[in-house]
Amino acid sequence: MKKTLYILFGLLVMTSMVLAACAPAAPAATEEAAPSSAVEESSSAAPEPTEEPAPAIGSPEHPIKVLFVPSVDANVIVTGGEVMAAALNEATGLTFEVVVPTSYAATIEEMCASPTDTMAFIPGLGYAIASEQCGVDVAFKAVRFGYPVYWAQYVVARDSEYQTLADLEGATWGYGEATSTSGYMVPFLELAEAGITTGEQVQTGGHNQTILAVYNGEVDFGTTFYSVPLNPEGAPVFTYEQYVAGEITDLSQYEVPAETIENCAPNAEGNRLFCDGYRILDARANVRAEAPDVVQKVRILAISQAVPNDTLSFSAEFPAELRAQIEAALLAFAETDAWEASIGNADFYGWSGILPATDAEYDVIRAMVAATGYEVE
Known about the structure:
By secondary structure, this protein is α/β, with parallel strands linked by helices. The protein has 2 domains: 147 residues, 3-Layer(aba) Sandwich (D-Maltodextrin-Binding Protein, domain 2); 159 residues, Periplasmic binding protein-like II (D-Maltodextrin-Binding Protein, domain 2), CATH 3.40.190.10. Helices cover 31% and strands 18% of the residues. A 6-stranded mixed sheet has the order 2-1-3-14-4-15, with helices on both faces. β1, α2 and β2 form a beta-alpha-beta unit. α3 packs parallel to α4 and α4 crosses α10.
């Protein structure tokens, strides 16, 4: 019996040993893993918001800027410019913002700074510079009573002793701005070519102010834009064809007849300046309210060479499709009565119409700039 018990006990011990040997080993203690330095984004994290697209050019949120150089009264420009903006909006559905920069140079700067959304009514000199600086491109040139060109005029007090340009040696010169083609650039070149050295130069701020400076005796002579006067039938006293043919040789042909001057005065409405039916269109007409006897007090001493008319130009990257719409709308607007209340107004820029223009037409002005080393500061 005892022997049997020993055998059973031995079997139990051996079984226990076998089971212990076959049991899986306990996992070894390990150090806690250090947290990863890279933070993984959770798959459930919200996506980053996408940037909203920029407002379309010509929308109310991104209007097209229409720049007008400050060559006449800013209030007149803004009022007339809004008439144009409304007409263009009606024709195209685009939104426009009328802007009158503080100077010619500021107009150029704004066009270069806003290459995708700016159009501007700028003179030939401004266009020539802006096209070279930042690729501004001309679309139209102004027509004034059949003329695609205009002139600078040298004006003096009617009772002054000045009779020729040579007499201006040492005289005080009043001009609007150094970036004005007719107000400064062309006269500057012509005086230099004639060997005339002026005295003090006074920057007046604009064509109107220059006329008033001469009228008030603040300067000896001034330079502003000149446009051909109209006869009592409403036609220019000479045509562009006559000018090109060299038929206009006497200074008196640029003025109204001498016998009409004493009767020059604003009309009853106050919006025109007439001399016995002859209508004055040069810069003197713009100050008829402040100086109704301006023609009696200020006369034309000389007229410059012809200058290509002012431009309507677009900034370098202006969208072609929008530009085409605006050009078509402007051509249509120029045929309406509202044009006369806008840029066609004599107190505004006096454009009687527009014609397509090419960049090459303004090479003559670029040549002037190159010849003098002229730069806009």
